Amino acid sequence: MIRPVPTLFALLAALALAGAVHAAGHAGHGTITLTPIGGFDHGGFDEGAAEIAAYDPASERLFVVNSEATTLDVLDLSDPTAPTLIEQRDMTAFGDGANSVAVHDGLVAVAIEADAVDANGVVLFTDADGTVLAQHEAGVLPDMLTFTPDGMHVVVANEGEPSDDYAVDPEGSITIIDLPDDRDPAAAAVRQVDFRAFDGREDVLRAEGVRIYGPGATTSQDLEPEYVAIPEGTLTAYVALQENNALAVVDLVAGEVTDVVALGLKDWSRLTLDVNDDDGVASFASWPIHGMYQPDAIAPFTVDGRGYVVTANEGDARDYDTFSEEARVEDVELDAGVFGDVAALQAEDALGRLELSTATGDLDGDGAHERIDAYGARSISVWNEAGQLVWDSGDTIETTVAELHPELHNVDNDESAAESFDGRSDAKGPEPEGVVVGHVDGTPYAFVGLERVGGVMTFDLSDPTAPTFAGYHNDRPIDAAADGPDGGDLGPEGLVFVPADASPNGRDLLIVAFEISGTTRIYEVGHAH
After folding, report:
1. Which of 46, 202, 226, 433 is most deeply buried (CB count within 10 A of its CB)?
2. pTM of this prediction?
3. Per-residue pLDDT tens for 173-206?
4. Which helix (H) or strand (E) holds 87?
5. How many Å from the N-terminal Cα to the C-terminal Cα in the chain?
């Protein structure tokens, strides 16, 4: 762990107090363009009316999870410039609502949670027309699912979140559904994979950096699978454990978790970020804090026969009725032996307003923080098959938004940009949440949805050890009310890349489901000239 000396802390604080601004000289306007060509309004604001989407090339249909209506919305995408609603399929007959959808060769799989906080959910299988083919039991709170690249298995991340009062804390788990040769889901075999082999190893895992900190929780209770990525040509699943700042490695053949890998911490003393939401300016500076990567969406890709995972490092905190880890730097005790002049550091015009975790950071248990752990890394990262970090985008996302769209600096997604300017600087900044990898003219690109400021940022992944910025598209209005008719597309969550050979118009498409605005937007992907 790198700990700058107190004299450096004082210098960094002085820089921030002076409003030092870092100019992103690497930004440019990029090589990839996104041109909006069509869209659909699912009819709700800030209720999750459009969350996760999946496209079926054979039927030219788009399936969108609509949490507000508790439906799976089916859109006709045969003309991507004018998507139309075919039907809204009621999911309440199968549980409390859909959380995720995936499609492979016309087979649709939907993850549906149960009503009770500790009850197992289900995976519903239908054809493109909605005929129910089968349903199989999953774990508690199936939050995301995906097909393996060959389409022969469905892998489900069962998050197992606790009740609001933390009286019930279900185990997180993975469900593997093995389809037969004819891919008839009614004849599928189902395997439930748990983390119980890691129970009793809590202290060892914590020492490695895995965040296990729920009240009285075992490892299997505390780990909360969020998202699954399966690189091409493998039968290994990588599962994001967001709150735990870790990845689980799952052998899909053996049906077991082979490893839980801590993702480590990001040293912000070597980079810049804006930590103050109250000064109304883009005040970039270096600070003695550490970012927890805590990815939400993760996506697989392969370069030169080697598999990688790219993560959108959103960050997330546990905040329940009887347990919360959220606090501001100004509200905790800092170790003066590590941080020097803590009063200056904790001032509101310095680091005081930044949100941090109280669950970690007090390394010796004396009640004072020797480390400041902030949520998320405001970045995307690339990890190899061993779960090792090979590249991180550093401060590129936040500084690039400030350079290309300064009026959108750390705005929020449920207020107008003008009203919420700088409003997320104390939290997780732009909040990269969704990510998908698509190949454009043979080159792999990561398309990253920025949950708070909006828009999609693109990175060229052709060299996994040194990806490059390739573009940023955001046509969000500045002054329009977020909940009004001109509020724009807000809160990108689910992203789908449709390659030209599977696209209804023969061109590469990017489809984005916007959770806050409740809209789905179709973009044509091109090259800048």
Report:
1. 433
2. 0.94
3. 999 999 999 999 999 999 999 999 999 999 999 9
4. strand 84-90
5. 44
